[in-house]
Design a protein that fits this description.
This protein is an alpha/beta fold and about 450 residues long. Helices cover about 45% and strands about 15% of the residues. The protein has 19 helices and 16 strands. It has a five-stranded parallel beta sheet, sandwiched between helices. A five-stranded parallel beta sheet has the order 9-10-13-8-14. Strand 4 and strand 5 form a beta hairpin. Helix 13 packs across helix 15, helix 17 crosses helix 18 and helix 17 packs across helix 19.
């Protein structure tokens, strides 16, 4: 026998017996209760590795158990058993703090995977030290303290998480930390930029294909869902998915399976889904660009990553940490930021957030003299030619030539973004809040 025992709560004797036999064969001891009253008595008497509870109980619900355990000093993951098709109840339980859910009739393979994931939390550290391993989550402002606490809490769940925030604010870093701090840390973390995949290749990239299924398919290929099996699939810029692909993604999430192009067989996949976009996804739903049902499926819990300008007090610590990391990688002495340089950084708006700060400091390290970075070394955009500023020709220049005036603004923004990112078009697109395809089209139209 291994770990602490598992608590089973269900008023159906057949379900309790099925769960008990399955878990005993896996090497776990169990205790069973048929209602809340019995469950509370057992919780007071024993330390449990996991609680498996039916959502509907004679004297309450699984939500009561979740609430009770959240108020307890001992952290016990709760998995809820729901009736088939009860998506709303399952979502409600995840929002309340459940680790995961499983539907009746119970799939025993899925049950075994769920239990293994849950009990692995017993011996796992909360991951606080890991939070300090990346510059993009360093900071002592309340925004960052709250964010780190939320990540630690979410890492102990398998609920779908939607990560919102501006480009360059660190959404992928948050996703990686949720993965590496949780029970799937030994599994793969597969990040996908949805805006960078050509629409004609999306289905093949996500679900895979068989040899000969289309021109150029010279061999079988596993898709991203299969690559992330047993781990986490991070869908960045999910708002850029075409509507027809959103339908197929929703089906894969609901069925926990995919069908490669050219195959007539479903392939079961077990992935935790994390998603992100810099766009306001609720507004995308209102505009008809994003499916409502998919929105509610991926947005069970939302994590908001603050913009850098919302945590100005973190900039000195963040800048020095980035400089130390850069110079350690390059094997050179770390330069010092002058008070004027620090003042310039803290007063700058950072439309590209932490990614832009990293680019600015990397450039400054190569330009500075005498191991000191001054304001001129930063090369911050001036108000007259920065992103979002008004071109020199002035508002009156729009009179009689509105189209040309708007093109000047767009050209200035694109050129400034490319300068900020050292010519990296993917990062420039993110800086401007565009998909890669949108950026490529506009840049070609404006600059050529």
């Amino acid at each position: 026998m291994k770990h602490n025992p598992i608590l089973i709560i269900d008023d159906e004797p057949d379900i309790r017996e099925l769960l008990d036999l399955t878990l005993m064969r896996m090497g776990y001891t169990t205790h069973s209760a048929q209602n809340l009253k019995e469950a509370y008595r057992l919780l007071d008497a024993h330390n449990f590795a996991l609680c498996l509870t039916d959502m509907k109980l004679p004297d309450g619900s699984g939500l009561d158990i979740i609430k009770h355990l959240q108020e307890s000093p001992v952290e016990i993951p709760v998995a809820v058993i729901t009736a088939f098709g009860s998506v709303e109840l399952a979502t409600e339980s995840l929002k309340a703090g459940a680790f995961d859910f499983i539907s009746k009739p119970i799939d025993l393979d899925r049950l075994r995977t769920l239990v293994k994931n849950a009990v692995s939390l017993e011996s796992q550290e909360a991951g606080a030290d890991l939070m300090q391993s990346t510059s993009r989550l360093i900071g002592e402002t309340q925004h960052m303290v709250s964010l780190r606490k939320q990540i630690t809490k979410l890492s102990r769940s398998l609920a779908p998480v939607y990560i919102s925030g501006e480009s360059g604010s660190g959404k992928e870093v948050v996703a990686r930390l949720i993965h590496t701090s949780g029970p799937r840390s030994d599994g793969p973390f597969v990040p996908v930029n949805c805006g960078a995949i050509p629409s004609e290749l999306m289905e093949s990239e996500f679900f895979g294909h068989t040899k000969g299924s289309f021109t150029g398919a010279s061999s079988d290929k596993a898709g991203l869902f299969e690559a992330a099996n047993g781990g986490t699939l991070f869908l960045d810029e999910i708002a850029d998915l075409p509507l027809n692909m959103q339908v197929k993604l929703l089906r894969a999430i609901q069925n926990k399976s995919v069908r490669p192009i050219g195959s007539n067989k479903e392939v079961s996949v077990d992935v935790r889904l994390l998603s992100a976009t810099h766009k306001d996804l609720a507004l995308q739903v209102e505009a008809g660009h994003f499916r409502t049902d998919l929105f509610y499926r991926i947005n069970v819990i939302e994590v908001k990553v603050p913009a850098l300008r919302e945590r100005v007090d973190d900039i000195p610590l963040l800048a020095n940490t980035i400089l130390e990391r850069l110079c350690a990688d390059w094997g050179i002495a770390t330069p010092t930021l002058t008070p004027d340089a620090l003042g310039a950084l803290t007063s700058y708006a950072f439309p590209g957030n932490v990614r832009e700060l990293e680019n600015i400091l990397e450039r400054a390290v190569t330009l500075c003299d005498d191991d000191t970075i001054d304001v001129d070394d930063l090369q911050l955009p001036s108000p007259s030619n920065g992103i979002g500023s008004t071109p020199q020709k002035g508002i009156e220049a729009a009179f009689g030539d509105l189209e040309g005036y708007l093109q000047d603004i767009e050209r200035a923004a694109i050129e400034a973004a490319l300068e900020h990112t050292g010519g990296n078009k993917t990062e420039a697109a993110e800086l401007l809040g565009l998909s890669f395809r949108q950026f490529r089209y506009r840049a070609k139209k404006i600059l050529e």
